[in-house]
């Protein structure tokens, strides 16, 4: 069982795919890490030696912002926008879409379940 950045990587998956289980590492960064450490893309996590796992862990700690630090950083950025009371911050505060999507219809993910309006019927 390989544990990197507080995440247990699935043992039977390829290294590239397993690294994407870490928040902040996608396919591109996973390939970049594997190339940097000269790990074959077809290797599975269970086939990695302890030294290779340690190298991966050290590389991620040194070069990438992942998991808790990344989540904290994102939350602080959103909080900063809300404190500034800029347009994006107000949209975050109200729980509405931030990036210009329409809200007349759709936007249910951000707005939540539809609430019926009393007295709407004719």
UniProtKB/TrEMBL annotation:
One Pfam family this sequence matches: Ribosomal_S13
Alphabetized InterPro entries for the sequence: Rbsml_uS13_C (IPR027437), Ribosomal_uS13 (IPR001892), Ribosomal_uS13-like_H2TH (IPR010979), Ribosomal_uS13_bac-type (IPR019980), Ribosomal_uS13_CS (IPR018269)
Sorted UniProt keywords: Ribonucleoprotein, Ribosomal protein, RNA-binding, rRNA-binding, tRNA-binding
Region (Disordered): 95-122
KW Cell inner membrane (keyword) present: no
SUPFAM superfamilies in UniProt: S13-like H2TH domain
Molecular function terms from GO: rRNA binding; structural constituent of ribosome; tRNA binding
One of the GO BP terms on file: translation
Secretion signal, residue range per the UniProt entry: none
Coiled-coil ranges from the UniProt annotation: none
GO cellular component, one term: cytosol
Subunit organization: Part of the 30S ribosomal subunit. Forms a loose heterodimer with protein S19. Forms two bridges to the 50S subunit in the 70S ribosome.
Function: Located at the top of the head of the 30S subunit, it contacts several helices of the 16S rRNA. In the 70S ribosome it contacts the 23S rRNA (bridge B1a) and protein L5 of the 50S subunit (bridge B1b), connecting the 2 subunits; these bridges are implicated in subunit movement. Contacts the tRNAs in the A and P-sites.
Family: Belongs to the universal ribosomal protein uS13 family.
NCBIfam families in UniProt: uS13_bact
Protein name according to UniProt: Small ribosomal subunit protein uS13
Species, as recorded: Sphingorhabdus pulchriflava
């Amino acid at each position: 069982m390989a544990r990197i950045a507080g995440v247990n990587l699935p043992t039977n998956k390829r290294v590239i795919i397993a690294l994407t289980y870490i928040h902040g590492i996608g396919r591109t960064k996973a390939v970049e890490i594997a190339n940097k450490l000269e790990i074959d893309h077809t290797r599975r996590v269970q086939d990695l030696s302890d030294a290779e796992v340690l190298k991966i862990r050290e590389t991620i700690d040194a070069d990438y912002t992942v998991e808790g630090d990344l989540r904290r950083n994102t939350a602080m950025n959103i909080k900063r926008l809300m404190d500034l009371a800029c347009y994006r911050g107000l949209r975050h505060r109200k729980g509405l879409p931030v990036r210009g999507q329409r809200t007349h219809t759709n936007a249910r993910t951000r707005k939540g379940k539809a609430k019926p309006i009393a007295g709407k019927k004719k």
